[in-house]
Amino acid sequence: MPLVTTEKMFRQAYDGGFAVGAFNVNNMELMQGIVDACKEENAPLILQISKGARAYANMNYLKGLINTALSETNLPIAMHLDHGDTFDLCKQCVDDGFTSVMIDKSHESFENNVAVCKQVVEYSHKNGVVVETEIGQLGGIEEDVIGVSADDVMKHVTDPAEAEEFVKQTGCDSLAVACGTSHGAYKFKTEPKLAFDVIEEIGKRLPGFPLVMHGSSSVPKEFIDLINKYGGNMPNTMGVPEEAIAKAVKMAVCKVNIDTDLRLALTAKIRQVFSESPAEFDPRKYLGPGREAIKEMVKHKLHVLGCAGKADLCR
Ligand code: G3H
Ligand code: 13P
Ligand code: ZN
């Protein structure tokens, strides 16, 4: 089937108390690990591409891989721009055939955020593309994504009244909210408490409206331990507990963003192969196990999100 927007996925997710996994893709092994997991679990899928991924992989290669995923699986798949930072980038992605774009002006003033989002919504809707926006600020700093210090995330959670006003003024289709999560591997040093009261209050003010949770990797200890065992150095870190994700998806959260856990799975396996077989130099011998580790991690995640078995509902 052709690419879909997230519209039907989110309606089903909202009503069914689950969320769709949005996984970041940068290369073929990531794509195959994720897509194979969704195929085995019959899950709807959002494949998301960041500005950095576009620069790294060349959009035409990524599009070729996504077209192959569509024909190999017949799953409902949305192609989404993650953290678009300008109108021009969002427009380029709409023109490139994306079915969903995110415009992230969350670090700017409310007025600037509204103004740019409105422009993106207008262009995207004219072309049948849905738009995710963001208000409030997450923690963590990454290549192309601005964030606050991970220690300060609770000071920057989304204001529910602002969220309501923001959605009304922009006409966006989904809203990423800050509720205590951070991007990257170094989210928390101790068990975190997410601001479920914020999610609940936004849910009350915007009934039926899909929310998005970024920075939602769980940073599994098994991967950190493997990385550290085989020469890495990733001390003292924790992610978003799976129980917290399972709770959020029963509320208004319909999309959960995962990138770091994919990177950790791949890195852990590659380090293990390099360390255990130092004479190995065939990329298939380390990327293959890495791809398998990604697949197993994603399959597990689809059950945490509750979207395993939900593909048919979202077609
Ligand atoms: O939240 C951002 C994603 O993890 C994408 O990261 O900009 O390094 O591709 P990236
Ligand atoms: P993680 O870094 O927790 O995987 O979050 C990814 C994300 O939010 C992509 O937009
Ligand atoms: Zn994000």
Description:
This protein has a single domain (7-314), classed as TIM Barrel, CATH 3.20.20. 48% of the residues lie in helices and 13% in strands. The protein contains twelve helices and eight strands. It has helices at residues 7-16, 28-41, 51-57, 59-73, 87-95, 110-126, 160-170, 196-205, 221-229, 242-250, 260-276, 283-305, and strands spanning 20-24, 45-50, 77-84, 100-103, 130-135, 174-177, 211-213, 253-258. Helix 2 (28-41) runs parallel beside helix 4, helix 6 runs parallel beside helix 7 (160-170) and helix 9 packs parallel to helix 11 (260-276). The protein is globular and about 60 Å long. The N and C termini lie close together (9 Å). The relative contact order is 0.17. The structure holds glyceraldehyde-3-phosphate (G3H), 1,3-dihydroxyacetonephosphate and zinc ion (ZN). Zinc ion binds at residues 83, 183, 214-215, 257. Residues 24, 50, 52-53, 82-83, 142-145, 183, 259 line the site of glyceraldehyde-3-phosphate.
